[in-house]
Design brief:
By secondary structure, the protein is of the alpha+beta class. It has two domains: 1-27 and 273-299; 29-270, Alpha-Beta Plaits, CATH 3.30.70.20. The protein is built from ten helices and nine strands. It has helices at residues 3-24, 55-63, 71-77, 120-124, 150-154, 179-182, 189-193, 204-217, 260-271, 276-298, and strands at residues 41-46, 93-97, 107-111, 130-132, 138-140, 161-162, 172-173, 199-203, 237-240. The strands form four sheets. The chain has a three-stranded mixed beta sheet with strand order 8-1-9, covered by helices on one side. The protein has a two-stranded antiparallel ribbon with strand order 2-3. Helix 1 packs antiparallel against helix 10. The longest helix is centred in the C-terminal third of the chain and has 23 residues, at 276-298. The structure holds iron/sulfur cluster (3 copies).
Length: 299
């Protein structure tokens, strides 16, 4: 393809993009809503108390209409010692780790969305389908989602899952902190069911204090660290443990909020009212030109 044709193509792609920008910019609101209320809620997970019963998994599945299986069926389908991540059928899972100091005493770790204070998923989402609510919950809106799955790539905890087995309108699936329940004054389903109070629900600043008090009062029980206190700028779910968190499946993360890069790119683009279709038109044009260039070279 000659240079003139390439220029014409890019001009057309840019014109389409600009035209669609004019049509859609008012509808698109990519600026993330991120309200960090002083009174936001959180959960303190005490892994030294959790007995690995997995009733939280079952309660979560029932509360969200994924399954009504009894706990024995759930346990027969997946092994607690097999390391799992939350998926599109279970927003939370419990993993078991060996405790080398006491082989009888395994360490059980419940995993779900951490409801980050500066959520990378919120920043990465180009159409504002993710929001950080005032009570600390990070929510996802099926009506806004365009299925790009940037959120899955952006999340430092690998939490958002995708309904790959659903052909029409598949959803992103992740813990919603039982938003429908908490706004009615109910406890999240997993917290309500936990038989040993391994999960404490409350105001985040109070949970921080509780966690520090536990570490101070029981130095032989806990390592001197709260996971989620500083990681990626802080999370609404906090963890206490008797062992290094890196031995328990937790990722090593910086203390800086991770949204920085994705936010700069995504919202820099949207600040100039360029909606996704314009970006796709430009990217399509670049791919088309590259393909033609490769064809010419191979010829
Ligand atoms: S853990 Fe992942 S999905 Fe959950 S709020 Fe943080 S970035 Fe978003
Ligand atoms: S808070 Fe609700 S959605 Fe999240 S893991 Fe617990 S039961 Fe599941
Ligand atoms: S219900 Fe409580 S004790 Fe049972 S696995 Fe979940 S967090 Fe652990």
């Amino acid at each position: 393809m000659g240079n003139q044709n390439r220029r014409d193509f890019l001009k057309s792609a840019i014109s389409i993009g600009t035209a669609t920008a004019g049509l859609n910019s008012s509808k698109l609101n990519a600026k993330p809503k991120n309200i960090l209320s002083e009174d936001r809620m959180g959960v303190l997970v005490d892994t030294t108390v959790c007995v690995g019963c997995r009733l939280c998994e079952q309660a979560c599945q029932i509360a969200h209409g994924f399954s009504d299986q009894d706990i024995d069926t759930i346990k027969s389908q997946t092994e607690i010692k097999e390391f799992r991540r939350p998926d599109h059928k279970s927003m939370t899972v419990v993993n078991q780790f060996n405790n080398p100091d006491n082989i009888e005493n395994q360490i059980n770790v419940k995993v779900q969305c951490m409801h980050c204070d500066h959520p990378a998923c919120v920043s990465a989402c180009i159409v504002g389908a993710f929001t950080k609510e005032e009570n600390g919950t990070v929510l996802w809106d099926s009506d806004k989602c365009i299925g790009c799955r940037y959120c899955m790539v952006a999340c430092p905890f690998q939490i958002p899952a995708f309904e790959f087995d659903i052909a029409i309108h598949p959803n992103i699936v992740k813990c919603d902190f039982c938003f429908d329940r908490t706004k009615e004054g109910q406890l999240p389903a997993c917290i309500e069911i936990c038989p040993v109070e391994a999960l404490t629900y409350g105001k985040l600043y109070e949970l921080h204090k509780l966690a520090h008090d536990k570490i101070k009062n029981y130095p032989d029980r806990y390592i001197d660290r709260i996971f989620g206190d500083l990681e990626v700028g802080g999370t609404s779910w906090l963890y206490l443990a008797s062992r290094d968190f890196n031995d328990l499946g937790f990722p090593k993360l910086s203390h800086n909020p991770s949204p920085g890069v994705s936010e700069a790119i995504q919202h820099g683009v949207f600040a100039y009212f360029i909606p996704p279709i314009s970006v796709y038109a430009l990217l399509g044009g670049v791919m088309w030109l590259t393909k033609n260039k490769n064809n010419t070279e191979s010829e």
